[in-house]
Design brief:
122 residues, mainly alpha, 3 helices, 46% helix, 0% strand
């Protein structure tokens, strides 16, 4: 350690323990992620092998091969739409959403302050 150290020789033990401490912190940080990746790989391997096992596997029972979940397609086959729009019309069918949008005056969509916002008393 003394050739690569910038500390005096009597502090070598402190430097050694600092190295061990930071290696432990690195292991605590990377360890769970590495275990999750290994678990995911083993689960995929197990499911892929189980699919081809005769009599009990998915192929023998007429099931589809396991697929990776898709972020762009729903299980029903309908494409997902990602947007930053508000949740004002969330969960409403397209035709009903269009009908509701037609009922909203344009002035309330563009400017909510001042005259013409639809909130004046008659």
């Amino acid at each position: 350690m003394s050739w690569f150290s910038i500390l005096p020789t009597h502090l070598t033990i402190v430097e050694t323990w600092l190295i061990r401490f930071f290696l432990l912190l690195g292991l605590l940080t990377i360890g769970p992620w590495a275990l999750l990746i290994v678990y995911d790989l083993l689960l995929w391997l197990f499911r892929s092998i189980l699919y081809v096992v005769p009599y009990v596997g998915g192929r023998a029972r007429g099931k589809k091969k396991p697929r990776v979940p898709s972020l762009s397609e729903r299980p029903s086959g309908r494409a997902r739409t990602f947007s930053i729009g508000g949740t004002q019309f969330a969960g409403i069918e397209d035709s009903e959403r269009d009908r509701l949008k037609e009922r909203i005056p344009d002035s309330t969509l563009t400017d909510v302050s001042g005259p013409g916002n639809g909130y004046e008393k008659d």
